[in-house]
């Protein structure tokens, strides 16, 4: 968690979409992502049309919810264009 300086409360920390996109462009695809924050960021990239991925739903267990790893299949043409500008 990150403390927001203006509102004095904690906010969830997550990777910026451009940072995750850059990491994925350097990795061999298909790639698996298992960190919850990265999966949430990946959902943003998929909705923006910058990546194609298989993101499974959360699984309910006796101790709470677990998220299986997501698999990134490709970075789209729009994603590669975004990499040039960010």
Poorly predicted runs are: none
Radius of gyration: 15 Å
Tally of strands: 7
Percentage of residues in DSSP E strands: 25-35%
The major β-sheet equals: 3 strands, antiparallel
SS field, number of helical segments: 3
User: What would the average pLDDT be, to the nearest integer?
Assistant: 86
Report the span from N to C terminus: 25 Å
What is the count of structural domains?
Answer: 1
Inertia-based shape:
elongated
CATH architecture assignment? Orthogonal Bundle
What is the CATH topology descriptor? Arc Repressor Mutant, subunit A
User: What oligomeric assembly is this protein in?
Assistant: single chain
| Class by SSE composition | alpha+beta
H/E series: EEHEHEEEEH
The CATH first-level class comes to: Mainly Alpha
The helix content, as a percent range, equals 25-40%
Give the strand order, joined by hyphens, for the main sheet: 3-7-4
What descriptive keywords fit this protein?
86 residues, alpha+beta, Arc Repressor Mutant, subunit A, 3-stranded antiparallel β-sheet, 36% helix, elongated
Could you describe the 3D structure shown?
With 86 residues, the protein is of the alpha+beta class. The protein has a single domain, classed as Arc Repressor Mutant, subunit A (Orthogonal Bundle). Helix content is 36%, strand content 29%. It has a 3-stranded antiparallel β-sheet. α1 crosses α3. It is elongated and about 45 Å long. The mean pLDDT is 86.
Describe what is shown at a glance.
This protein is of the alpha+beta class and 86 residues long. The protein has helices spanning 17-26, 36-47, 77-85, and strands at residues 2-4, 9-11, 31-33, 51-54, 59-61, 64-66, 70-75. The strands form 3 sheets. Strands 3-7-4 form a 3-stranded antiparallel sheet.
